[in-house]
Specification:
two-stranded antiparallel sheet, single chain, 32% helix, alpha/beta
Length: 97
């Protein structure tokens, strides 16, 4: 068994990687139904999120059946990354990388 914080995964687990324009809610639903143990949303831009960009904000939509689920944040400046991480925390992902 693998443990990441409070998340417990089986020894041989199936994880869905964060993929831009692929891992949207519909795709994650299918993957969960087909046995995914851990999933991620699409990558989220820190700049897009702090500017309330529609596409970035929509990526924060996660559903209870998807858990455990993680969000991968990307950016190149510290301040927007910190601010975006605080925004992401409101969605209560299980992981933030």
């Amino acid at each position: 068994m693998l443990k990441i914080g409070s998340i417990e995964l089986p020894e041989f687990f199936l994880a869905l990687a964060p993929m831009e324009d692929i891992t949207d809610p519909s795709f994650r639903y299918l993957c969960k139904k087909l046995g995914a143990d851990l999933m991620y949303t699409e990558f989220i831009s820190s700049d897009g999120l702090v500017r309330s960009g529609k596409k970035s904000v929509e990526k924060l939509n996660i559903f209870d059946y998807e858990r455990p689920i993680g969000i991968q944040l990307y950016g190149h400046e510290t301040e927007p990354m910190v601010e975006a991480a605080k925004i992401i925390e409101q969605s209560k992902p299980d992981l933030l990388i």
